[in-house]
Structures are given as structure tokens and as C-alpha cells.
Amino acid sequence: MHLPEYERLITALAERVAPGGVLVLSDAVDLTSDRTPDSPYTSVMRAMWRGLRSTIGTDVSWVPSYPHLLRGAGLGPVAAEIHVPPLQPGSPISRFWADTWERSRQAMVATGLVDDAAVDAAVRYLGSDACAALSAGMLTVWGWKPEEDPAVGS
Asked: Given pLDDT bands bounded at 50, 70 and 90, which one contains residue 148?
């Protein structure tokens, strides 16, 4: 998500995998699409992703393409799964997001999508029983490098 030349990098990594070996990649996947109901959480998450993109180049929009990119790099079979930890009051992931928003508050507010009051409301929302949202997930994808055909080397 922080790599501007991700296709080139994935291809280079796949080339370095030994025949029969596996390449495993994990990255954040954003689940706050335009169809996600508006809430204090979704507003702040959208501002966070935009702020991260404008400050350090984070782009999670291509992460769901990982399986296709691994296949395109010559790996196969390819598989993937997403882990989405539950947002519950006081849970580790809820504390993580609240801490992340505090550290990136300035960049989030600079997007114009939220103000300080909106960030504070989202932190309160995470700590409440009213929270009904999906955390960003962690996509893990893996692909195997085909075994070399012994007949080819003969």
C-alpha cells in the first residue's frame, strides 16, 4: 500500500521465489466503499485514507488486485483470505484506530472531509455499543511458483 511501483515489485518478488516455493503478501484492505452507510467511523476512515495518500502515498485501492497480480507474475495456484477484526468497545482494533486517528489527525483534517469534532465523534463511536461498522481488513494472498519441468532441462 505504500509502494508506488507495486506491479514491478510483485513481479520481481515472484521471480525470486524458488520453484515449488510460495510468495505470501499481506496488506490493508479498505472496506469503507461508497455503499457503506455513513457513520462517524466511515467519515473518519475515508479522511484517513485520503490523508495518508496525500502525505505518504498510501494507496489501498489496488490491494484487492493482489491475487490477479500474483497470477500475472507467473504464480499459481493463487489463494487469498481477508481477516476483519470486530470493532467492539475497548477491543485492540478499536484502540488501534483511535490511536491512529490521533497521530494522523492533522492530515485527516487537512483533507476537508472531517474536522476535529468529527474525529472526536468517531473515537467516541468506536467506544460505544452503537458502533456498527467494519474495520479495514488484512488481505493475505499467496501463490506458488510452478515446479521446473525436468524434461525441459534435458
From this structure: confident
Longest dimension (CA), the chain: 70
- What is the reported pTM? 0.83
State the amino acid at position 59 in one-letter form.
Answer: D
| CB-based contact 137:29 (threshold 8 Å) | yes
Task: For residue 60, name the pLDDT band (cuts at 50, 70, 90).
Answer: confident
Residue type, 55: T
For 12, 80, 150, the CA distances from 153, given in Å and listed in that order, are 23, 32, 6
Spatial distance between the Cα atoms of 52 and 55, rounded to a whole number of angstroms: 5
CA 111 vs CA 48, 79, 115: distances in Å: 9, 36, 9
